[in-house]
Design goal:
The protein is α+β, with helices and mostly antiparallel strands and 181 residues long. It is built from 8 helices and 4 strands; from the N terminus they run ααααααβαβββα. Belongs to the ATPase delta chain family.
């Protein structure tokens, strides 16, 4: 079974618990911190992957390091240690956030532009694409990419809307090449 399928199962379980207790926002914040810790602390990953360290020592360590998180989040971490699935934490966090956003009608968008977008431009993109996607809100992550020359490329989930000058020039070139044949 692939890691993403397994991660989704754990994320669904935690999501349902959070929905029942109305603490999805708190769980998301905790999971983001945990994900960040696991991404940036290689020694933590090595410790938890070490077969010579007992599960109980690993669990005790995790209880101490993440003592401020909710019991539900901590229980999920401890279960991942028991099942030797600590390596799926980043996928679990990603799936959890995706489910939470979907339940609230929120989508994440990566917007590539040649320069940092202004507040007005960001708001206009949010409103336009929220209507187009039939969602309540669109969270924008602006990525500056000077190679696109101008315009914007927007990625929402698996969909890409490309209005960049670079792409328009490529299309024009293709039309000219096929017209000359």
């Amino acid at each position: 079974m692939s890691q993403s399928v397994v991660a989704k199962r754990y994320a669904v379980a935690l999501f349902e618990i959070g929905k029942g207790k109305s603490n999805l926002d708190q769980l998301e914040e905790e999971l983001l911190v945990i994900s960040d810790v696991f991404k940036n602390d290689e020694t933590l990953n090595q410790f938890l992957d070490n077969p010579r360290v007992s599960r109980e020592k690993k669990k005790e360590f995790v209880r101490n390091v993440f003592k401020d998180v909710s019991q539900d989040t901590l229980n999920t971490l401890l279960l991942l240690i028991d099942k030797r699935r600590v390596d799926i934490i980043e996928d679990l966090v990603s799936e959890f956030i995706k489910m939470k956003n979907e339940a609230r009608g929120i989508a994440e968008a990566d917007v590539y532009s040649v320069r940092e977008l202004t507040e007005e431009e960001t708001k206009q993109i949010q409103e336009t694409f929220a209507k187009k996607m039939m969602i309540n809100n669109l969270r924008i992550n602006n990525i500056v990419d000077p190679s696109i020359l101008g315009g914007v490329r927007i990625r929402i989930g698996n969909e890409i809307y490309d209005g960049t000058v670079k792409t328009q020039l490529k299309r024009l070139e293709q039309k000219l090449v096929t017209a000359n044949k």
